[in-house]
Amino acid sequence: MIAARATTSMDADVLVIGSGAGGATTAAILAEAGLDVLVVEEGDWVEQGSVVPFSLGQMDQQYRAGGVTVAIGMPSIAYTEGRCAGGGTEVNSGLYWRPPGELLERWRRDFRIADFDPDEVLSIADEVEQAISVRTMPGPHTAPSDVLKRGADRLGWNNGEIPRWMTYPHPDQPLRGERQSMTRTYLPRAVAAGARIAVGCRVDRLVRSSERANAAVTTLADGSPGRITFRHVFVCGGAIQTPALLQRSGIRGHIGRTLAVHPTVKLAARFADELNVPDDVPVHQVKEFAPHLSFGGSASNPGLVALSLLDEWRSFRSAVTDWPRMSVYYAAITSEGLGRVTSVPGLRDPIVTYRLSRRDRDTLRSGLGRLALLMLEAGADTVFPSFRGAPAVHTRRDLGTMQQAFSASKATVMTVHLCSTVPMGEHPDRCGADSFGRVHGQRNIYVNDASLLPTAPGVNPQASVMAFAIRNARRFVAGGTHG
Amino acid sequence: MRQVRALPVVGAFAERLLADDLPDLSAPRRREVVAFVARRVDSMPSFTRFGVLAIGSVFRVVMALPAGWTIAKLLMALPLPFVGEYPRLTRSLAVAYVWEHWPHTTPSGGTPTGSAVA
Fold this sequence. Notes:
The structure holds two protein chains of two kinds. Chain A is α/β, with parallel strands linked by helices. Chain A contains twelve helices and 24 strands. In chain A, helix 1 packs parallel to helix 12 (462-479) and helix 5 (143-155) packs across helix 10. In chain A, strands 1, 2, 3, 10, 11, 12, 13 and 24 form an eight-stranded mixed beta sheet that branches. The longest helix of chain A has 20 residues, at 358-377. Chain B has helices spanning 7-21, 27-42, 46-64, 68-77, 85-101. The termini of chain B are far apart. The chains are: A alpha/beta, B mainly alpha. At the A-B interface, helix 8 of A face helix 2, helix 3 and helix 5 of B.
């Protein structure tokens, strides 16, 4: 482990709060420029391979609140946040999507992001892809992944393998790939350049006077209070914790008002032969209806298969013993709705809410219907949709009944992509941070994580997060504002 | 501020719900699952945890009444916002735990013939 336990009193020129895709890349760029950088992380450093991927044990060790976090609404949307060194990059599927060029252009225009060249961002994406070894799997794909390809091919729908940040030391055993997450890549780079990493340190608030912050009030893992002094601070706690910390520090404005997510609905599909892969996810995705609607595969250990049957347990439970022949799939939408992150005095954690629009609800309905069709085309004998009152789907004739019975309010809606709570740009009515992540109205407080993305990108956002964070950190270095 | 522990609030409800949903789950396993559910509630974000414990307290009072479980089941069947989330949360945590830890559990919670109860 290259991190140390946090202590009650620490200091640095630049404090980076959070060690995920935004924090780790920020720390590496700043440290390599010769700055004195301290990264603090609320969770622990957990070595890869020490926990089973997608298990409850992993949720205990590497997720906030054991993975039981929810945006309140009708329906409520379950979400997860990484809480460990490396953040979400340690626990997610590792699938990599660079930001689409036309989306970058739209963000530049609509949010008035200054000096924002989409080609520069894509060039940084090239660097990132080298640094984290983005590549496709060697050898054959897993059976649950082939299901997506087979079903989409039969329907003539656009689909493909999504590359991952993985290396494959044993090319003949692609399931033994090694995730090139932040603890394997940018955090070691930061440390090699002189940065320090302290784990077990929650930042409760920033101490500010006027437009500057000069210290962070912390709570260590054992409950003891601490303090960190600094000259500049980068808040990289993710789209929930970053706005919450800014609000607890008395910063308001456009902070936490525009949470954007990719809501997903799920189903379990059962096939004639065994196909379940308990500790990995499919690498194929179906993008025929992108960016509004995408299909992919979820983690499908027996517990998660059982969970996917739960909404209609009385009817579906007899299928639970068939889990070796089942896998779980999702339909994800790019939502029009918005959520809020609100810190309330006296509460340790923020209140998160989210409201789906009417169009979102309709898209979830049509998405689940199309996903069920895809599964039937791929050879599923039965599809078990995850909503209360769902019928089992055996043939195309059942799809209409299923869609009629569907309501988003009866469904288990989830998301893993959270962003846009401190949008960047110069638009006075929409942005919480300037075009390089500095919080509007503040002189030395920066945000550099998924919070900055102006809207939900319609694809896995971590490539966008890394590219933006590197761009902004380089600007900070080049601007000399640290001197 | 000292935190109210979840087990005394949610334990009896979770135990009863599991007995209904998975009647063949052995008592030691059921206790293990209930303890897991309570641990997860304890680690929830503060506002959500407060809500869960508030609703859990209502169910706890209801279950202390004569025919309490029947009334609780009626309450669960009503389309009340958030109240329905409580049994759903309890079931979700329980089911995920049972089949992750004992993947060959039968649909009623039993152990397949020939297997020993852990």
